[in-house]
Fold this protein.
Amino acid sequence: MKKYKDIVLHGNEACALGALAAGMRFFAGYPITPSTEIAEFLSVELPKIGGTFIQMEDEISSMGAIIGASLAGVKSMTATSGPGFSLMQENLGFASMAEIPCVLVNVMRGGPSTGMPTRPSQGDVMQSRWGTHGPHPIIVLSPQSVLECYTLTIHAFNLAEKYRSPVIMLMDGLVGHMWENVQLPEKIEVIDRPEPSVPPDWYNPYDDLPGGEIVPLVPFGDGYRYHVTGMVHDKSGFPTLVHEEVEQCLDKLIYKIKNNLHDIIRIEEYMLEDADICIVAHGSVARSAREAVNIARSEGLKVGLLRPITLWPFPRFHLENISKRVKLFVVPEMNYGQVYGEVLKSCPKRAVRVTRVDGELITPAQIMEKIEGTAL
């Protein structure tokens, strides 16, 4: 495989490179715009290093295939867009319930349905959190640059292995199709699946250990016999309706994420120290928001930016802290206000939104128009 250290890279290719750097060796997917370059790149590069690339018949089977590969001990990933993401939801819920590490990349496009295949959107923020049924958390990351397509994909695999959970890379089509000159880091942290600390006869893959420690998932074929199901299960993995075991199963799903928010949630703050107005933006829109902050500051307006890098779990506590200092939140996004709704739930302060759903990026001028037209 070629060495990529200082080079002009495409966002989707950077995502694929990040997956390879993280140790991903199994990809199953169905090509769909604007995510297709991820599959195209991996179909060439993955076999060169002994990995497996499979073009599946659809997105349902793609998600099922990476779950199976992960159960066999291989770091696995799929990538999709729009309606393909919808088709993956049931198996995404299965991976959450069965606590199977894997990474799902969704390069968002305009919707609903087949929508606008070649135009970007941020319309899947809520679907990434609530697309499946039942009470379970999910980890969702949102890159804003080609470099972050690389680094956050590595981070996604690390979180997946650390917390035995599917992790979603939620990229908008602008980020996925962006070309930038990047310097890929020489040193990266890669978390691999730990070995079990108990013999096969003592192994319970869903045990609730003291201190919230997560039981390592032993690959099938390694001599550890256990059951995997999407049903609510006991500590051995077999279905149960015993109410104490049901509560233990579901509580563990919730609290393995909730008790580690400090480790999982990443944000970026820009000029927020003395700000009266806080812009909340993610993905490509955060780049426009950053420029809007620069314009506002040049005009003497105290404006700053909060960028949620981890979209889910939502950085509610950070917003609550910032709300003690600012007078107004401005939320630009390429949908009708999905993050805006979360800001309203998190903060008692005023919030206004800037929305755009025509497949074009929100500009700094649009954000400034809202700021200048809203009295503090």
